[in-house]
Design brief:
The chain is an alpha+beta fold. It is 32% helix and 33% strand. The N and C termini lie close together (11 Å).
Length: 73
């Protein structure tokens, strides 16, 4: 299992964060998405090994008008 931590520049409300979590969970090979409401800029995305998911995650977030950065992989 691999994971990336993504930092989202924008401040999002709990509904928007949940919508993002659902969007990320729908990506192929993503196994789990964690968002901490106490730290609403951080998102952890876990995905199956052997797949290049980080760029797909960043691309999806960009298409939503967000400005994400990968903090760790």
């Amino acid at each position: 299992m691999h994971s990336i931590q993504v930092y989202i520049d924008e401040k999002l409300d709990s509904k928007s964060l949940n919508d993002l979590r659902v969007l990320m969970q729908e990506l192929p090979h993503v196994t789990n998405v964690e968002i901490n409401n106490a730290q609403p800029h951080d998102m952890l995305v876990e995905y199956e090994e052997h797949y290049n998911i980080p760029m797909l995650v960043i691309d999806k977030l960009h298409h939503k008008g967000l400005h994400p950065d990968i903090v760790s992989a």
